[in-house]
Amino acid sequence: MNNLSQVILELLAISLGVDRLYYCKFFEDGRSVMRGNNYPPCRNAGLTFGTGPHSDPNSLTILHQDQVGGLEIFSDNKWRAIKPRRDAFVVNIGDTFMALSNGRYKSCLHRAVVNKERVRRSIVFFVNPKDDKIVRPPPPQKRKDINVIMKKEEEEEERVYPDFTWLDLQEFTQNHYRADTTTLQNFVHWLSSNKQTQP
């Protein structure tokens, strides 16, 4: 999974016009986590979720689901089921990578639904930076024009999110705010409020 995540990070870097190894180096000492999920059947499946609507606070999520299915993403104002495939992974952009890309990539709103008859299982790999790594987009001089058309004003774009560490965001989601659809916005507001109250 580490190797797969490195390939994905290279592709993301190329798409953003930075050196293809830029994000690989950023995450090389990271603290990625693999987890197994188990969703038992539920008699009232229409009244509950396996996991409610949320975006992942981490950087990338690589998921393989069994053939039962249950993952849904919110797109074009409706929930859409992601059909399971034995030969494919699902890759979600998380809030941390949204900040690393200065909002060019958006974190994916998704949920897991249960059913009445069958257990659903999935394996998930969360790509995270090191706890004390400063999360900020690459500076303009790190960007290349190869294979990417960029306007001059995009090179000088304003920062959408302030600097923070992965540990900052973890502590916020664990102590102050459940990870959901507005986690990053609320985290940024919390960061700004804390800076204003500090002596």
Automatic annotation (TrEMBL):
Q: Which InterPro entries match?
A: IPNS-like_FE2OG_OXY, IPNS-like_sf, Iron_ascorbate_oxido_reductase, Oxoglu/Fe-dep_dioxygenase_dom
Q: GO biological process: what's one of them?
A: gibberellin biosynthetic process
Gene Ontology molecular functions:
gibberellin 20-oxidase activity
Q: Which domain of life is it from?
A: Eukaryota
Residue span, Fe2OG dioxygenase domain: 30-129
Annotated protein name in UniProt: Fe2OG dioxygenase domain-containing protein
